[in-house]
TrEMBL record:
GO biological process terms held by the UniProt record: regulation of proteasome assembly
Enzyme class: hydrolase
PROSITE patterns: FCP1 (PS50969), UBIQUITIN_2 (PS50053)
EC number: 3.1.3.16
Every Ubiquitin-like domain range: 24-78
A molecular function (GO) term: protein serine/threonine phosphatase activity
Entry-linked CDD domains: Ubl_UBLCP1
CC cofactor: Mg(2+)
SMART domains attached to this UniProt entry: CPDc
A GO CC term attached to the entry: nucleus
UniProt name for this protein: Ubiquitin-like domain-containing CTD phosphatase 1
Compartment(s): Nucleus
Catalytic activity: O-phospho-L-threonyl-[protein] + H2O = L-threonyl-[protein] + phosphate; O-phospho-L-seryl-[protein] + H2O = L-seryl-[protein] + phosphate
Amino acid sequence: MSVFSEFLIKWNGTDYKITNLLVSQTVGDLKAEINKQTNVLSDRQKLLGLKTKNGQPVTNDTLLDDLNYKPNTKIMMMGTVEEKIEDVNKKPENVPEVIDDFDIEKNVEEIAIQNREENLAKISRRVREYKIHVLNESRPNKKLLVLDIDYTIFDHVSHAERGEELMRPYFHEFLTSAYEDYDIAIWSATSMKWIQAKMEEIGATRNPNYKIAFYLDSGAMISVYTAEYGLLNVKPLKVIWDKMPEFYSHKNTIMFDDLRRNFLMNPQNGLRIEPYKNAHLNRDKDKELYRLSIYLKKISKLEDMSEIKHKYWHKYI
């Protein structure tokens, strides 16, 4: 009887290897093995992106032989161990504040970074070689909203059984409002597979009230060197502008990201959003997307949005 060489499960930042399962066994058997390694009960496990060969929904009774799974491909899992469920709504004590970004102001070095030949050459290479994952056609005379995923619209660290539990409050309402004036793009510093899995999980790929125009992943990013912070990976919007010049430019694009360094190459088009963390504690009080929907509506009529200092968006509304 043939066996799968290995299943790779990614959960809580750690990779787990599941080996020696027969192709005649089921997804339920796979979950039982996952439970042994992670202590997450089978009925609390959600395996993202797992599909059958004929496109049917995956159930616990699905045979492993019927899965559309390539060996050594990672499967992202969501799920919570029983001990965590009991404490999930308790506010942690004595947790130090973690600062995972630096405060970049518009300075001489930043201007130089934008115009350095080596950085422009990297962008040109991305424009030539990178293929944007298009979901829906761009619309004429619409501005462009570029969104990050992790910590911007999704808490990717906290435990949960369903993606909706980690989704930022007002997410669907926010995109519904933005879609009236903006095409919507998702740019995450992860792989395309994880982008598709997360957006599917939170119900953003087939929402009747808005459409996502396209995805970009880590392959569209470039590395730049700064004297103060060393080598950084950034998201140059010029990749989009040069690949879609008939639709988008620096005048009609705004990017939301929880890390300011991600828009180092285009600071006038970036807005640093407050990171969304500890979803179980903050889902009833986080109103960042609600307020930003008001801001987007107010600036949507401007001819050149890059002339605004998005850093002060709170004052603008």
